Amino acid sequence: MAGGMFLEKIRSEGLSHLSYLIGHGSRAAVVDPRRDCRVYVETAHRKGAHIEYIFETHRNEDYVIGSVALAEMTGAKIYHGRSPDFQYGRATKEGDVFKLGDLRLRVLETPGHTFESISIAVSDSGFGEHPVAVFTGDALFVGDVGRTDFFPDQAEEVAGLLYESIFGKILPLGDQAILCPAHGAGSVCGDSMAEREFSTLGMERLTNPVLQVKSKKEFVKAKLAERHYVPPYFRRMEQLNSDGSALSVNQLHSPKPMTVSAFEKNVEDGAVLLDVRSPEAVGGALIPRSLGIPIEMLSAFAGWFLPYDKKILLVVQGYEDVEIAFSYLIRMGYDNVTGFLDNGLNAWEAAGKPYETIPSVHTSEIVRRITENETFFLLDVRTESEFRGAGLPGAGHIYLGDLRKSLDRVPRDIPVVTFCGSGLRAVTAATILKMEGYDHVENCLGSMAACAAIGCPIVKGEG
Amino acid sequence: MAGGMFLEKIRSEGLSHLSYLIGHGSRAAVVDPRRDCRVYVETAHRKGAHIEYIFETHRNEDYVIGSVALAEMTGAKIYHGRSPDFQYGRATKEGDVFKLGDLRLRVLETPGHTFESISIAVSDSGFGEHPVAVFTGDALFVGDVGRTDFFPDQAEEVAGLLYESIFGKILPLGDQAILCPAHGAGSVCGDSMAEREFSTLGMERLTNPVLQVKSKKEFVKAKLAERHYVPPYFRRMEQLNSDGSALSVNQLHSPKPMTVSAFEKNVEDGAVLLDVRSPEAVGGALIPRSLGIPIEMLSAFAGWFLPYDKKILLVVQGYEDVEIAFSYLIRMGYDNVTGFLDNGLNAWEAAGKPYETIPSVHTSEIVRRITENETFFLLDVRTESEFRGAGLPGAGHIYLGDLRKSLDRVPRDIPVVTFCGSGLRAVTAATILKMEGYDHVENCLGSMAACAAIGCPIVKGEG
Amino acid sequence: MAGGMFLEKIRSEGLSHLSYLIGHGSRAAVVDPRRDCRVYVETAHRKGAHIEYIFETHRNEDYVIGSVALAEMTGAKIYHGRSPDFQYGRATKEGDVFKLGDLRLRVLETPGHTFESISIAVSDSGFGEHPVAVFTGDALFVGDVGRTDFFPDQAEEVAGLLYESIFGKILPLGDQAILCPAHGAGSVCGDSMAEREFSTLGMERLTNPVLQVKSKKEFVKAKLAERHYVPPYFRRMEQLNSDGSALSVNQLHSPKPMTVSAFEKNVEDGAVLLDVRSPEAVGGALIPRSLGIPIEMLSAFAGWFLPYDKKILLVVQGYEDVEIAFSYLIRMGYDNVTGFLDNGLNAWEAAGKPYETIPSVHTSEIVRRITENETFFLLDVRTESEFRGAGLPGAGHIYLGDLRKSLDRVPRDIPVVTFCGSGLRAVTAATILKMEGYDHVENCLGSMAACAAIGCPIVKGEG
Amino acid sequence: MAGGMFLEKIRSEGLSHLSYLIGHGSRAAVVDPRRDCRVYVETAHRKGAHIEYIFETHRNEDYVIGSVALAEMTGAKIYHGRSPDFQYGRATKEGDVFKLGDLRLRVLETPGHTFESISIAVSDSGFGEHPVAVFTGDALFVGDVGRTDFFPDQAEEVAGLLYESIFGKILPLGDQAILCPAHGAGSVCGDSMAEREFSTLGMERLTNPVLQVKSKKEFVKAKLAERHYVPPYFRRMEQLNSDGSALSVNQLHSPKPMTVSAFEKNVEDGAVLLDVRSPEAVGGALIPRSLGIPIEMLSAFAGWFLPYDKKILLVVQGYEDVEIAFSYLIRMGYDNVTGFLDNGLNAWEAAGKPYETIPSVHTSEIVRRITENETFFLLDVRTESEFRGAGLPGAGHIYLGDLRKSLDRVPRDIPVVTFCGSGLRAVTAATILKMEGYDHVENCLGSMAACAAIGCPIVKGEG
Asked: How far apart are CA D293 and CA D420, in angstroms?
């Protein structure tokens, strides 16, 4: 029944988290499982294999790891790097080898992103010692390397550690090793990852921009110059991933459909309204006091704005989005998503309830207003580095994640137009302003991308 | 391997078309297959059964039947009622019996909806002659009966035939027979079907409003008083379902993703733009010259507005909706859906292309305008019977399907607000007006439902 | 998002257990959930519905009910009939009504099969009071009624109660009600169910053989004359279904693939070997000391032979059968299935391990041996009523479930040929005899069915 | 909607054929599609991508390629190497480049396995010219290289061409390129492929045994020493893959379930009986005149024995195996699989029909017979190279594929025991002998593997 070797990537959309099932015949291991971990059991079963080991490449800060739940479902043993923080699993160290049929998984200690980070080199004992693949966690990505900003007091040290891990341990495994990192493009763990999720150590050695340095010094300098944002939810992830206390997904109830009146009642009682529809739909009609985060932005921004101690209620376009939003949010530890508005905005409107709108403004209209010196505030919520790269003249910059605490910088007496890369982040900003009582808010659908396309006057922002 | 008897309903969303797989052990038949007919083969295979017969209860006018394609895939034989129109299959007549293991399928000629309509009574030979189920096609539905308006010159005759078919043949099969009709709630083949798709002849005899008549005369009178609309695409369905000339779905290419520039090029060359997003999203931003039909309304209204001789291009919220819209449209014979805008409105906006908006107006605001005698035209696009039931004072009525040919009744010099049951049909009207050059168009999200909920002044419409 | 009414039957193969998801729009209930209850959550989600109620028609004795687990997953409330035995859920009584949108679920107390049995009549409030469906649990089946042998001291009383429940409460609901029983053909809860799982009260009133009686007295007499077997595992089911103590399926690990040596080691340590391959495959090669039960017989016979206190190891043909056998066994409370032989018999044979064979004997050869007075023991393991109906001359009868305790009736000094309906039960008997040290055992593939087909001399058995 | 880059391997079980879907965003290509090609369309749709190109790395001889059918379903263009044989598609040549978003697919002419073989190097234009992957067709596999025995008159030339293609073109692409070959372990296109299907050029350069040569001469010598078998069906594959005349899978009917009598009738009319059950099941009971090929051996041996001009009927264990066997056989161009025996052997036996058995003999019993000089013929049907490696003393060798034409070497007057690696091929030999009228045939389950495990006396065979 059981067959050859397998190496399967399981991608978690939203977080752009990559995890892996690797094995030979009927024996398998999982690397960095996500919280909703049934997928590994099912994938292994399809192959006739049983999961024996679970590896964590490091204590993750951006999602709830599923190790404890997966261990309960399978009886597998959990291994992670050496750190006093872990209150579950076992520590593994440099040189430890795990066997899965003819596969050999050898542990390398590769600190830098975190101190206890490990990588795992995979070889096929029938074909010698050369690693055929390597799990690098958040040390080395396709086109980028891991963040080293989590220990600000030791910034230089950890950047140097990462250099040593990559250049001293990982790359020496050989150009032939297939690269298996823990994140792909779209993750909050790195800005510059390639859109391509398949690569090798050789490919990275030759083409990864961050690795094209002449010295450790140059590498460290470049890392220290990076500017990353730290969403507040990271702290909770670190705690859950240290003590292993996250509930099993099986114990969570998925959000209940709610009638308009039940929905209203919950909101009155303090529930938070999260609208994950598109910017256009949110612009067309919006329940008052909703936070709008388009579903493709949810994993990146929910952790800035959503509380862990209040009920969260969803407003969605279609029922499938309830499941998607729910899965994205529980991966971030939001176990408090209790309901959604049954039949969505249509039900709300048909009940005669009030709704707001956020008018869309074309970039060409913004340019006209600027040119004609009309009075309005153009609020650019992109990252500092994007804003420094290029922006519209006269724009004010507040990074979206920081908006709530920087409202004093947004004038209340003149119209505000929210602005970002193409309109997805700007709509979130617009809904926050509406919630905060701003009357006259518009959203620039198209934003910077449209500017580039139509040739607006562009200046370098001063963030 | 093969097991007991099975009776599976296959529902086609959109059309609310119901088809059936029935069988015993390894032998099966399909009743009224839809065009994308792989589902029957797969369902039969899961049961270890082979499809031997395909029955058409009548020549359908509202969708492309999949008999010929399914026969090619399975080798099954096609049977339908007696009519010179059919250019494929075999005629079956009153009393014919087909065997599937212990099941017996007996044909009843039940004209009325069409002349060649048949019903099929199912009995289990191990349990005597009493029918356990009956396929009634468009003769008898849950809570309604079939339309009898397709032969206006013989209106009274066909209504009488339907009475005889139902009261003389179908109901006498006995209260114990499970009802298996060809349509459920939401179909264009009947206004008043129940939201419940499971019933029996006894249940209908006792509770179906149309059957609670004292005489054939009363029944015929009621049928003659009904007012149905006939979408223009019915004619094409009749032709395809007579000559069996529809292409197999396997020969159709699903719509291609198109870049913004390819999309624009196609539109310039005459392609029709179909936007199936929600009313809120269409209101928020809309590509100029798009026809907006929310996806849940597509099967009901595409056949009024879409051409068969031009390319149709889709604008959707998410990629899944491409597949859904495509399947809905090919069931209506639209083989000309060639592409969709890749990445949707966001791509369009990011390319700096122009978009329009359709502002949403709350019902309370409409009431205010009426009360304060503001100048505007309230365009109610519901059916005549809905409009006659209740409407806002001063509204003008044009049924949505008739809007294009009745534009002379919509003033161009004052603002227009579109209005319907809850805002879904009104947005289609709004996009048609925009296409036709109306400048000032708003859509009343909530519409009549919101009026009822908040207690507007309501009058009886005079349609 | 949420739509009309739905009534979905979920069939558990093996047990032939039928459970139901019923609902309207976003509100749903489950009737008699099985232990592996994720299927209800997933089916409800596909419909955009949330499970609010769980009903148990009676305390089941033949499978582990999933109410407690399903309640944990969904937050739904559990309801069952009135009995002091239940240590979870709430009691419901005659006349209680539960609402799901327009659906009304009304409770009827229908004792007989058990004292606390309830039925649930379903009506659609938009269409009056007439029930459109009824959940009858183990009171009324398609073509049969429930067993009344569980209270031998009150046999007449309970048979009478069942008569009153069916004729006094259920049938009066009307011919039009769709029948939704808790079991279909193949269940240990009734011998004579139809192969057809769709029926109505009218259909049963007209055709169910057990209901064609002239009086309560005749009904009771017929019930008292029935002869049922009570597999020993029923006791455990009753306990688990009273105290709700069964583990959640999420807490169980599926069986591990085992190497030949690990497998042998476990057997030496006392594990029980269960071979679920076909009679032909078991006949061709069999690991010594295996109990052979073909997988389609597993639910019917596992409960006679398998222990709850030892490890159970599987031998299967293909990996899919591991999952099937595992699901069948956990539904019977066997949480002790810990492993399976990886790569099956082929691995065992390739390791040079010893195997046995059970030669197949054709019925015509049996007839020859009988005719020529050869010395052998023909062991017929069918039910007493089958045996009384017809058998081969000279056969000895022991019901398969009773074989282990009746071995003194099977001679050890002459060849034994096992015999049943077509060879499926006989192979189990053959493996038991092999385990018990019988040297010369053959299995008659074809058995009684082949006799009938080829025209053997047949006598009435004297069981 | 469309996202990043993807590279998906689609494995065809049985043939161990590997094909690929590669793309960026909404644009995709397929390399070497199999005949049942819906899988590519569905995989592409899941990614929101459209298939624009189809590449054939060479004219395949071991399966029916799906290019023409896939092109019809998608409108994609077909490309292959330059050869006058192709009657469809377009020729592509060294240096041609195809774009899919940022991906670049560059053609290399890599003759050797066939003259027109191409490889395709893939680079990511955002990351320079270095290939990140390469499709090598049948030139380079994981752990092996392509066969070069198809042109016996030019054997040395083609082996030399392959050397140049691998060492002169493919390996120079760099160690970093991920290897994407057209076959994995189990294929008839190479004996020594690794069980691991993931590798890189670097990994192969370092560890592929065939590449560890010092010179072209050494490579050519080794290739010329290889001994491959050419199943007769290869000729038909070459024809179908040249003229593109294979029917679309949509036009094929899957095998019909047949009653025992219909089955018998077909066999009488000349249909061929193919039994794909396990060796143990075939040994336990077998319909006379069946060819037994265990399903996991079907792709390797069907092409030696099955005709294209007679109906083929299946005997299977479970219904799923009908679908599996059907898919395996249509991939080999067997469009003549018309039916299967409904309910399998159990139905046959229950109908009282005659069956045969093939007794299983343990290896230890064979050794005893050899040691005690009993008279019997031990028929070893492994490959010549396996037989030369090690075998039992006194065994006669005939390769399974050659058995039918070498029956004069198998004595009819003494018992025959069939023997192979572990019993899977030997059972096919046993059924052939039974068909050919051999009376006394046994099969050695365990065979050579069991010998090794228990330590039999082993000699070098003289094939």
From this structure: 13
CA-to-CA distance for D99 and D119, rounded, in angstroms? Answer: 16
Confidence class of residue B463 from pLDDT cuts 50, 70 and 90? very low
For residue B2, pLDDT over 90 is answered with no
d(CA C90, CA C167): 27
At D249, phi and psi to the nearest 5? -60, -30
Chain A contact present for D287, CB below 8 A: no
Do residues C122 and C134 lie in contact, with contact meaning Cβ atoms separated by under 8 Å? yes
- Find all residues with CB under 8 Å of A405, minimum gap 6, and list them: none
As a whole number of angstroms, the distance between CA C321 and CA C277 comes to 9
Q: Tell me the H-state helices in A26-66.
A: 38-46
DSSP secondary structure of A226-289: ------TTHHHHHHHHHH--PPPGGGSPPPEEE-HHHHHHHHHTTPEEEE-S-HHHHHH-B-TT
List, in order, residues 6 or more apart from D71 with CB less than 8 Å away.
Answer: D54, D77, D78
Q: Which residue in D25, D49, D253 is closest to B74 by CB distance?
A: D253
D428 membership: H or E segment, kind and range: helix D424-435
**Hey, is the C-beta of D250 within 8 angstroms of any chain B C-beta?**
yes
DSSP structure class, residue A45 = H
Rg (CA), chain C: 24
Rounded distance, CA A446 to CA A453, Å? 9
> CA-to-CA distance for C328 and C333, rounded, in angstroms?
9
Q: Do C197 and B5 touch (CB under 8 A)?
A: yes
Residue A206, chain D, CB below 8 Å: the answer is: yes
**DSSP per residue over D181-230, as a string?**
ESB-TT-TT-S---S---EEHHHHHHH-GGG--SSHHHHHHHHHH-----
Touching C: which chains, 3+ CB pairs < 8 A? A, B, D
pLDDT tens, residue by residue, D259-285:
999 999 999 999 999 999 999 999 999
Give CA–CA dist A100/C46, Å, rounded.
38
Chain D positions in Cβ-Cβ contact with residue B343 (cut-off 8 Å): 1-2
pTM, rounded to two decimals: 0.94
Identify whether the C-beta of residue A328 lies closer than 8 Å to the C-beta of residue A34. no
| Contact residues for D153 (Cβ-Cβ < 8 A; gap 6+) | none
Q: Which pLDDT does position B250 carry in this prediction?
A: 84
Q: Which of B200, B201, B205, B208 to mutate to test the interface with C (most CBs of C within 10 A)?
A: B200
Q: Which residues of C touch A75 (CB under 8 A)?
A: 253, 256
Beta bridge pairs of residue D183: D17
**Angstrom distance (rounded) from CA D409 to CA C271:** 47
Backbone angles phi, psi at C408, to 5 degrees: -60, -15
Rg (CA), chain A: 24
pLDDT tens readout for residues D290-331: 999 999 999 999 999 999 999 999 999 988 999 999 999 999
Residue B99 touches partner D, C-beta closer than 8 Å: no
Are residues A340 and A315 in contact, defined by beta-carbon separation less than 8 angstroms? yes
Residues C359, D354: C-beta atoms closer than 8 Å: no
Most B CBs within 10 Å, among C127, C173, C295, C296, to test the B interface: C127
Q: Which residue on chain A is closest to C323 by alpha carbon?
A: A45
Alpha-carbon distance of A184 to A186, in angstroms, equals 6
Give the strand pairing for A396-397 and A377-380: parallel
Residue of chain B whose Cα is closest to the Cα of D76: B253
ipTM for the whole complex: 0.94
Q: Report the distance separating Cα C332 and Cα C65, nearest Å.
A: 9
Q: Which of D53, A318, C25 is nearest to B316 (CA)?
A: A318
CB–CB of A1 and C319 under 8 A? yes
CA distances, D270 to each of A118, C38, C176, D181, D432 (Å): 65, 49, 52, 40, 17
